[in-house]
Amino acid sequence: METTMERPGRLREFWYYFRENRGAVIGLSVFVVFVLVAIFADLLAPHDPTQQYRDHLLRPPAWSEGGDWSFPLGTDPLGRDLLSRLIHGARYSAFVGVVVVTVAASVGILIGLLSGFAPRWGDTIIMRIMDIILAFPSLLLALVLVAILGPSLTNAMIAIAIVQQPHYVRLTRASVINERTRDYVTSARVAGAGIWRLMFKTVLPNCLAPIIVQGALSFSTAILDAAALGFLGMGAQPPTPEWGTMLAEAREFILRAWWVVTFPGIAILITVLAINLMGDGLRDALDPKLKRS
Amino acid sequence: MNKPVVVAHDLTRHYEVGGGIFSSTQTVEALSGASFTLQPGKTLAVVGESGCGKSTLARVVTMIEPPTSGTLMIDDEAVSPDKWASLRSSVQIVFQDPYGSLNPRQRIGDILMEPLVINRKDMSAKDREAQARDMLAMVGLRREHFDRYPHMFSGGQRQRIAVARALMLNPRVLVLDEPVSALDLSIQSQVLNLLVELQEKLGLAYLFISHDLSVVKHMADDIVVMYLGRPVETGPIEDVVANPRHPYTKALLSATPIADPTIEKKRIKLEGELPSPINVPKGCAFSPRCWKATEECRAKRPVLDEGRHRVACYHPEG
């Protein structure tokens, strides 16, 4: 029986497999909301995130006693609307995550590929340098880098990217070395493929699954590290409504005003969880070995 | 007699191993002194047990690795690493494991077209696709399989795809590195018949590497028996099978099962293990396991004698 069926497009096929994983779809929806909030923060936020309402210091959320519906999630110690700050904070978190993962992953993958294909001495040099970077506690190294570069969100992102990039190098190199000896790589070489083609077209697509998962995980690590640097005064500077900085600013009021730490914490938790779920689903959908034909 | 497509003379491939800070390098003699010719439309079988250098030979002939010494001529042109790129399309290879030899991330069409994309840059995308679809039909698959991924196929179908890819550049020589040993018996014969059919149609020369003598008897015109990196007996397949002269060949043949319970078999059991190629015995490599070995065998390595049916032994049979 000869049937000529039009293949569904790549994207539709991807969506078909992605859809089967419910957690991933929930994660994706939350992530889309997160991104939309980040993009349209100016339109969604009821107040200016830095506007201080001196009459409304530490006002509790609207539904609890003493709440006010003009500040749905309450206000912080300086009388700024918490909801507006969270909405604007999404923008910074998304920015930190995207920039750090992009920089760390692209540099890390490139170095990892080179290391995997390099002769033994080149591989040894690259991996020893990565070992040296990994030998430092990551936060300490980021702190030192920020101290050298000067405290700001941009420099914090650069520092975090440098700290995270050895993980990508190791991961990529490990899968490259594993894949490189396989017969399909040899047959691509027999077909005449040059080293760049072998790296990026033959081997790299087969190494992506663990890198995607690592990317999702390090997206959250990046947000957390940026928060930690902010906490230590080395990241986003007040009054920037970055979630981590908000947590740090509010730590004195944890016992008196639960909402000032709870809501930024929940925001980070939900975002990180959603991204991780999405990363899992992404891997399942991108890996043809798991597809049913 | 036709003009040979491949002439190999004294091919040798040694590997350096070890060589850390605390140990000196050692040399693995994976392949030594392999000479043979490949004729269009003919099959040369290379047999021997694991670790005897069969796959190294395949890698040298397909220009994956340069030989340590010796010469390889393809179409009267001496092969050297700077000419690899231009000679690639003459020699292609089919690997043993069809599950490892197809890129799991590429569609069948992309796998088949890759050699064309690399080597025939002036070809239009449409022509490439047409050729790939025709090739699928030629190896007994359907043209619509073009858009599928390798994991959607069975082992036999995958091996057909591997053959199709190897043929995309219209090679003159196909190196078959144990092409059926990973397949079911019933599938083996299908793939073998396909190979025979393609050879007749395209006039291909096969270098057929195997450890399965019953398959070799079915496929080959000539045979090279290898032991520890060296050919010990070569000749036309009928002669070698009917009248093995080297004790090792005789032992190998006696291990082939015969599908007839009435025939009484005299199985020659070899003692001991294949020696390590790092530490090749002085003299004949087979002498530690040979029942005919003498002082002479242990002292000096025998060379292949002359003639059509050649053997490297001081005490040949028959």
Shape of chain A: elongated
CATH topology of chain A: MetI-like fold
Percent strand of chain A: under 5%
Question: How many domains in all of chain B?
Answer: 1
Oligomer: heterodimer
What would you note in describing this structure?
With 293 residues, chain A is mainly α. Chain A is built from eleven helices and no strands. Chain A has a single domain (26-62, 70-290), classed as MetI-like (MetI-like fold). Chain A has helices spanning 10-19, 22-39, 41-44, 82-117, 120-135, 138-149, 153-180, 183-190, 195-231, 243-249, 259-286. In chain A, helix 10 packs antiparallel against helix 11. Chain A is elongated. The model of chain A is unreliable at 1-6 (pLDDT under 50). Chain B has a seven-stranded mixed β-sheet, sandwiched between helices. Chain B has a four-stranded antiparallel β-sheet with strand order 2-1-4-5. The A-B interface holds A 2-5, 7, 182-184, 186-194, 197, 202, 205-206, 288-289, 291, 293 and B 62-64, 85, 88-89, 91-93, 95-97, 100-106, 114-115, 118-119, 142, 144, 147-149, 151-152, 162, 165-166, 169.
Concise summary:
The complex is a heterodimer of chains A (293) and B (318). Chain A has helices at 10-19, 22-39, 41-44, 82-117, 120-135, 138-149, 153-180, 183-190, 195-231, 243-249, 259-286.
Note the topology.
The complex is a heterodimer of chains A (about 290) and B (about 325).
Chain A: H1 10-19, H2 22-39, H3 41-44, H4 82-117, H5 120-135, H6 138-149, H7 153-180, H8 183-190, H9 195-231, H10 243-249, H11 259-286
Helix pairs in contact in A: 1-11, 2-4, 2-11, 4-5, 4-7, 4-9, 5-7, 6-7, 7-9, 9-10, 9-11, 10-11
Chain B: E1 6-18, E2 25-38, E3 43-47, H1 54-61, E4 69-74, E5 77-78, H2 84-87, E6 91-94, H3 108-119, H4 125-138, H5 155-167, E7 173-177, H6 185-202, E8 205-210, H7 213-219, E9 222-227, E10 230-236, H8 237-242, H9 247-254, H10 295-299, E11 310-311
Parallel strand pairs in B: 3-8, 3-9, 6-7, 7-8
Antiparallel strand pairs in B: 1-2, 1-4, 4-5, 9-10, 10-11
